[in-house]
Structures are given as C-alpha cells and as structure tokens.
Amino acid sequence: MRKVGITETVLRDAHQSLIATRMRTEEMLPIVEQLDDIGYHSLEAWGGATFDACLRFLDEDPWDRLRKIKAKAKKTPLQMLLRGQNLLGYKHYADDVVEYFVQKAIANGMDIIRIFDAMNDPRNIETAIKACIKEGGHAQACISYTTSPVHSLDLFAKDAKILEGMGAHSICIKDMAGLLKPYDAYNLIKAIKESVKIPVQLHTHYTSGVASMTYLKAIEAGVDVVDTAISPLALGTSQPATEPLVASLQDTEYDTGLDLMKLSDIAEYFRPFREKWIESGLLDPKMLGVDANALIYQVPGGMLSNLVSQLKQSNAVDKLDEVLKEVPRVREDFGFPPLVTPSSQIVGTQSVFNVLMGERYKMVPKESRGVVKGEYGKSPAPISEEISKKILGDEKPITCRPADLIEPELDKIREEIKDMIEQEEDVLSYALLPQVAKAFFKKRKDGTLNQTPLEPAPKKAEPAKEQFDEEDD
Amino acid sequence: MRKVGITETVLRDAHQSLIATRMRTEEMLPIVEQLDDIGYHSLEAWGGATFDACLRFLDEDPWDRLRKIKAKAKKTPLQMLLRGQNLLGYKHYADDVVEYFVQKAIANGMDIIRIFDAMNDPRNIETAIKACIKEGGHAQACISYTTSPVHSLDLFAKDAKILEGMGAHSICIKDMAGLLKPYDAYNLIKAIKESVKIPVQLHTHYTSGVASMTYLKAIEAGVDVVDTAISPLALGTSQPATEPLVASLQDTEYDTGLDLMKLSDIAEYFRPFREKWIESGLLDPKMLGVDANALIYQVPGGMLSNLVSQLKQSNAVDKLDEVLKEVPRVREDFGFPPLVTPSSQIVGTQSVFNVLMGERYKMVPKESRGVVKGEYGKSPAPISEEISKKILGDEKPITCRPADLIEPELDKIREEIKDMIEQEEDVLSYALLPQVAKAFFKKRKDGTLNQTPLEPAPKKAEPAKEQFDEEDD
Ligand SMILES: [Co+2]
Ligand SMILES: [Co+2]
Q1: Do A313 and A176 fall into the same domain?
Q2: What is the ipTM of this complex?
Q3: CB–CB of B6/B245 below 8 Å?
Q4: How confident is the model at residue B27 (pLDDT cuts 50, 70, 90)?
Q5: Which residues 260-289 of A have a C-beta within 8 angstroms of B?
Q6: How far does B215 lie from chain A, in Å, by closest CA?
Q7: Closest CA of chain B from A214, distance in Å
Q8: Cα–Cα distance for residue pair A136/A131, rounded to 1 Å
Q9: How far is the alpha carbon of A175 from chain B, nearest alpha carbon, in Å?
Q10: Chunked in runs of 10, what are the mean pLDDT values of chain A (473 residues)?
Q11: Do A265 and A342 lie in a common domain?
C-alpha cells in the first residue's frame, strides 16, 4: 500500500500566512514532542519569513528556535523553505554566504531544505542544492507554479528533469497563490512523475478555495507528499487542513497512516491560540475566507489587492479591468515570469503605470529594468529585442547567473560584525539582514529583548513596509 | 457534455448554518435578480428553519418573503427544505395540514420541495411527496446519510428505489453533519445511480472539512446536482463554496457552465454582510473553522458539543470517552436511527444517562420511549424484544405510520385563529407554530413589527431553547 506523506506546516507557513509569522518559539515548544510523534513525512518549522520575523518582530534568535525545536523533534525530519540565492533575505547573496548558510542550517538540525526561485531559473537554486547535498541534507528543488502560454506540461516536466539532473532529492511544485486547480494538478503531477524518478511534493494554499480538491487529484495522480496545516491554522491564506485529508484517505490505497485521535490532540492545543489571535486582531477573519478572484484573473490574491490599492491612490479604481488586461501583456513582455514575490509586484506596478500614463513603458521603475536586464535571473521565455531596447536603451542585458557578478562577501561581513557576534550563526543573520540583525544583537547585549511568552499577542499585525508585506511563500 | 447542476444555498442553508437563520428579506432582495441570472439548477430560498426564524426573530411573514423572492427570480427554480410530516415545525402534523401546506408553498412560488425524515422512514415523507406531485411541483425525496452496521450501500440503494417508486422526481443524499467522505461518496453515488433512473443530488456541510473533496468524487461518480454557497457565506458549518467548485470543473466533462465573473459579483454583494456579521458577533469565527472530531466519532459536531455540555453540568467531562462508546450501543438498541435532529439529541441524552447512572436505561426520557415506541416512525433496523420490553414495559409499540393516528386538524385550527388571519397562509403559520404565529399576528395587527432593514444585526445569535438550537438541516 502506497502511503501518502504529509508535511505539517503549522510551525512555518500556516502562521506565516495567517498571523504574519508571529508565532513564538514558546508557543511552539510545548507541542513539538506530540507533533514529532504523529508520523509526518516532515515538519516545516523554519525558513521563509520566520527568520526575519524572529529577529525583527519577536526579539528571538532564529538559530536558537531551530535548535530548540530540533531538541524536541528527534524522529521527524525538519523542513525549511529557502529562497534560493536570496536565502531568507531579499536580494542575491554571494555563493560563499549561501554555502555557509546551508551548512549552518543543517548543522543546527535542518533535514530537508526546500529551495525555490521566483523566476524558476535553475541557476539561482543550484548553489543551495549543491551545498545541501554536500552537507548531507535532503535537497528539495521547487518549481513555482504559474499559468501562461509558455507554461505547458512539457515545460514543467523539463524543468523538473533539470532539477533532478542537478542532484535534487525531490521536487516540489510550489503554488503559493492557490492557482492550481484539481484536474490541472492531476495532469501536472502525472507529467512530472513521468519525467523524473525522485519523489514529488505539492505545496499550495487554500486562498482560492480549491486546494483540498487539488490535493486529492494530485494524490490520485501519484504525488508523494502534500503540505497541510492542522485545522485551527488551516484554510484561508494557509494550507488545507490536515485532519480532513487524512480522514478522506483512510482505508484507501492512499492512506497516510496518521492517527486522527492524535491529530485531534494537536488541534486541541492550537485551537485556543486561534481564538486568542482572532480576539486580539492578529488573525483577521478575512484571511479565513475564500477569494476566488485569483482563479478568474490568474493572479495571486495579494497582487490583486495591491493593484486595487495602487489604483485607489490615483483615484482610478475604474481602470482595474484595463490593468487586469494589461497584466498578461506585461508578463509576456517580461518573458512570463511566475507571479510571485517580487515579480508579482514588479509586473503589477508596471501594468498600473502603463494604463495610467496612457502609454506603455513611458514610466519604467528600476525593478522593471532589473527584470528585463536579467538581474533576477533568466525568464521562462526570451524577452524580445524590441522590449529590451525600449526599456534598457543601449544597456546590454546580462546573461550570466546574477550571483556570478557578486564577489565572495563572507570575510568582509564577518569583519564588520565581529564585535557583536556571540555565535558563528550571527554572521549569517547579519549577512542576510544587516540592520535588523544589528538591532537584535544590540538588544541581546543590553538585555532588553522583549520575548514576552504567549501573551499578549500584538494588537494588530503590522508587517514592515515593502519588503515584508507581500511574502507569499 | 454532461453539465453538473449547482443549487445555491445562500438564501437558506448558508445563513441558517452560519448566522442562526437571521438573514432578512431586505438583505436578500437586492441580489435576487442577479442570482436568478447565474443559471443555477435551483436557488434554495425557503423552508428549513427560515419559516420559524421569520416569524419568531425577524418579525417577517415567511409567505411574503417567498412571494417577494419569486417576483425577482423568474427563471431559476426556487427550492425549499421540508421536514416531511413535520413540515417546518417540530412534530407530526395531520395529512390535511401537510397537503394544504404543500399546496400553498407551490401556489406562492415554490418549485422544488426537498423532503426528508429524520428516521429515513419513507412513510413520513410520502404524503408530502404525493401532495407536491399533485400540485405540479418537483418532489425531491431525501435519504439522511449516516453510518452504522446496517447502513450499507445496499440499504441506501434500496431506500432510493423505494422513494423513486413513490414518484419522487429526484433523490437527495442529505449529509447534514458533513460525515460523508470523498471515496465513500463515490461509492454511494455509484450505488444509487445504479439503483434509480431519476437525478441524484448531494447536500453536505463543510463542518468536518471534507465536503469539497466529497463533491468532487460524487461528481466523478455521476451525481447530477450539488449544493454550494457563495464564498462569503461558505465553509465552516455551511456548504462548500460555489466559485472554487465551478472553477475546478470548468473545461472538464463536468463543467457547470456558470460564469465566474458573475459569481464574483454575487460574492461582492455578500462580502460586506459577512464582515458586518462577524463584527456584530452574529457570525462567530468558530463557525468558520474545521472540526474533524465528527469524522472520528461519526456523530455530528452539534451533538458532540451537546454531550460535552451535558457532562459538564454533571461535573463528569471525564466520562466523555465512555459516553462516546455508549452512543453506538444506544443507537443499536434504537434500531440505528440517523443522528439528526431530534434523534441525535435523544440518543445522546440516553447515552449520557446510561453512563452517569451506572446502569443502562435506569432513567429513560419520554423521547427515548417515543423512539422505541415508533412515535417518530420506523427505525432502519428492528428494535429487539428485549429493549422494547425494558423500555416500554407492557405497552405495545405502534407499527403504523405515526400520522395515521392524527385526525384531520385543519378545520379546527382555522376556527381557532379565524379572527387573526389576513391571508389563507396564516392558517398554516398558525398550524405549524401556534404561539409564535399568534404573537406575530398580534404585532402585525398592532403595527409593532420590528423589521429594521439591514441594520442593526442582532448582537449575538440567541436561538430559542430546545426546539431551535440544534437544527442541522
Ligand atoms: Co506557502
Ligand atoms: Co443542510
């Protein structure tokens, strides 16, 4: 009997998606041993936005969190999300930083590293994959799911093959916006399973309301593992709920083997947190609803609301339809990048400008130039001479891997921060988020960290502007 | 291409399930024409608890609501839920009342009458079916879904065949507690489709989190119509959301043919209501969560919380496990009735008594006696001599249809209330809910009806005790 594996996301993506990554280590630790006892394929417990949130909002050392969770989860592989060459930050880092980060993540207890790139450029995840393999970790390579005229089953299958060729131990189809519909998932998983020999995992969000059905069809198509969240932190912008899927598969050929009674105890633990967070406003019930507009426009929910708010600022909400028609045209011009952070904002903003100016590419933000120039990596389809010329003028696009242009930087960084570090890992925290880490180090030294355990929850989630507010891992 | 039909429940079950049936006619009317324009198989808009709620809480005439909705929904069949011989009340009524009620429902605009009985005793729905057929309505006969050793695919298929034989135009599998899991739904629908020629519809609730998946597998098995709610009033104790299912089936052989853009407009209309109701406390976010315990214990969520609260009152919450083991034994003794109102309360209370007394059936409430005596109809399996003797003593059970023992009552009722009626339908309101209707008539006469439109929403839903608070239609 083929057992379907379950990755539980409650310690990472679920709270990242519902409560702006505000779950504290103290809130996690009392239940980790029970989570460890469930028999999950893995526990997603680190990475994504949690690293930044620990340092920036929670006054916690993310490395310390990792070690504490590991100490209580001795049986279940821990899993993290890594943004390829961006690691857990917001720009490309030098290879020596990437390699050292992966080494330290594994040394501190990480088992499975899920690695993705917003452009689906395999070169942007290769260094992390190789480093993970070298350190004895499980390297899971991602394909960001999107729809476009070039994103055929063939293209996805070929991408998967390339990642397998790089040595990835498994493939993850990562659908951060919940755009993947059930029967499309069936065909996609079939195509990828035929293309590669390594296991295939599916990650999606409930945002548009199709995700549970999508998992069911993906499972019928042979997917090996899916990501779910225990019910009190499931649905809405988070993952499908764990228990209903486990119950649905029970006594079928897809049985997960997980015990519903034990899962019920886990849910029991988190239910009061859910209530507390709703009470305090940290969990907005709007996050728990279904927003099917993403399925209509094939753009992530977060991008859609950004477009609306940009248009509102210009008193031009009536132009929304026009902008929504412009989005696929800009995407085409930019080589059909997946619509994930940061490309979703870049394409969205450019589309708004094109419509509001009454002339396409009259105004071009530097991020748009960056995409066309190749600073984020290679786009899925080539960018035409015409667009390249229009946007870059005489400047030549780069064709190498963006990080090839970055000198090794670890030594310099270490030198800069040497007076403040208390552990080797601090060098990496500083490398990724210099200001944020420095502020944390200072408070740590002064003994002014405010790690109030369990209570009170922040009154309203106020994620930092720009960099932080539309993470859709 | 076989089109799957969608029944939209937003005007009935969705708000009954989420906001204690408090949606006002004034809140419905502005969107009815647009709903009518979608192309739904039907619009569930009346019956269930709405009749009582109109008169009891909203100071509205339910008949007037029906006429007003009908005036704006000229194309889409209207649908209602009828509790068999209980109509929209809480006891068995005489056949003349049942027949007159059905006649008036159809005369006022009803097209499809969904008729169920809590015991699944076909005799309890036969009068209503025949009356519906006679008046030219569509008679949909229900099978209440439940699990037990006697509830095999064979039994359900046979029950469906009996209902078809009575002249029902379609069959509905009614899973009020969300117990039906996807692969079980597949097998069940297959079995019923093989047993009958008439269309088969599936009704379930999202409560336990499996419902969307259940619809998908039911559709693959050939179900003709499913019940969904527009997203702002979907999930939790309500139905699965309409839009994700429509999107999922698009461009497949199961396409519903509905337009997602138009559905998006409907969602837009209801979204502010959702927010208002959450704000005012009428919609408790707890209702929006997933409760998988129903799947573990195979009892409805409402019954489970009733058991807990009964045990709390006796300071015996630690006996919950014991009670949960007693429930299937009591069900067996009582002939495996489906666990729906009122049998869920009766079986639950009896189980609590059996455990707390330390001796089974030492204390037997009159409702338990009623079940064993046959006052609610014939149970799915026979009740043993031993149990019958133990509970009824020398009293003999009745074997006829319960309503056979009720004399015609319409003339008497009409006589009683003749001074207060303003329309023929008032006789029926009074027949079903004498006190409630009388109070309504009085306010209507005095001009003191409080039909405050749209605002304010009741601060907290406080359904009337006993009869009203665990309706799980
Ligand atoms: Co995610
Ligand atoms: Co219902």
Answers
A1: no
A2: 0.94
A3: yes
A4: very high
A5: 260-261, 263-264, 267, 271, 274-275, 278, 285-286, 288-289
A6: 9
A7: 9
A8: 9
A9: 15
A10: 89 95 97 98 97 97 98 98 96 97 98 96 97 98 95 97 98 96 98 98 97 98 98 96 98 97 97 95 92 89 88 93 95 95 92 96 96 96 95 94 97 96 97 97 96 53 40 63
A11: no
User: At A152, which amino acid appears?
Assistant: S
> Does some domain include residue B362?
yes
Domain of A395, in residue numbers: 299-403
Give me the DSSP letters along A127-156.
HHHHHHHHTT-EEEEEEE---STT--HHHH
Task: Specify the pLDDT at position A468.
Answer: 45
- For B248, the closest of A210, A241, A290 (CB atoms) is A210
Which amino acid is residue A386, in one-letter code?
Answer: E
CATH of the domain at A114: 3.20.20.70
Judge if A236 and A120 occupy the same domain. Answer: yes
Q: Residues of A with CB below 8 A from B325's CB?
A: none
CB A114 within 8 A of CB A82: yes
Residues B92-134 pLDDT 10s = 999 999 999 999 999 999 999 999 999 999 999 999 999 999 9
> Looking at CA atoms only, how far is residue A190 from chain B in angstroms?
17
State whether A193 and A272 are in the same domain.
Answer: yes
Q: Does B252 touch chain A (CB under 8 A)?
A: yes
Question: Residue B6 forms beta bridges with which residues?
Answer: B226
A248 and A369 share one domain:
no
Q: Does A231 touch chain B (CB under 8 A)?
A: yes
Name the CA radius of gyration of chain B, rounded: 22
User: Inter-chain contact A286–B292, Cβ cutoff 8 Å?
Assistant: no
Dist. CA A9 → ligand 1 center (Å): 9
CA distance A439 to B224: 61
Please tell me whether residues B24 and B161 are part of one structural domain. Answer: yes
Q: Which residues contact B184 (CB under 8 A, 6 or more apart)?
A: none
Q: Give the closest of B271, B275, B290 to A244, CB-based.
A: B290
From B251, B280, B309, the end of a domain falls on B280
Are B305 and B274 in the same domain? no
B415 is a domain residue = no
- Which residue in the block uniquely carries the two structure tokens 């002939």? B335
Choose the final residue of a domain: B372, B404, B436: B404
C-alpha of residue B201 to centroid of ligand 2, in Å: 13
Q: How many domains does chain B have?
A: 2
Confidence at B472, pLDDT banded by 50, 70, 90: low
Place of tokens 């390579």: A141
Q: Is A296 on the interface with B (CB under 8 A)?
A: yes
Whether B231 and chain A come into contact, CB under 8 Å, resolves to yes
Q: What is the pLDDT of residue A467?
A: 44
Q: What is the CATH number of the domain that holds A385?
A: 1.10.472.90
Residue B146 has pLDDT above 50, yes or no: yes
Instruction: Return the bridge partners of B175, or none.
Output: B204
Q: Using a CB–CB cutoff of 8 Å, tell me whether A210 touches chain B.
A: yes
The tokens describing A20, both together, are 């702006």
The shares of helix, strand and coil residues in chain A, as percent rounded to the nearest 5, are 50, 10, 40
A313-316 long-range contacts (CB < 8 A, ≥24 apart) are A314/A352, A314/A356, A316/A355, A316/A356
Q: Which ligand has the nearest atom to the CA of B471?
A: 2
* Torsion angle, alpha carbons of B257, B262, B264, B266, to 10: -110
Q: What is the mean pLDDT of chain B?
A: 94
Q: Do the domain assignments include residue A444? A: no
Strand ranges in B145-229 using DSSP code E only, listed in sequence order: 170-175, 200-204, 225-228
Judge whether A411 lies within some domain.
no
Q: Cα(B256)–Cα(B159) distance, rounded to whole angstroms?
A: 28
B172 with B36, same domain: the answer is yes
Tokens at residue B388, please?
A: 């019958």
**Alpha carbon distance A377, A398 (integer Å):** 9
DSSP symbol at A450: -
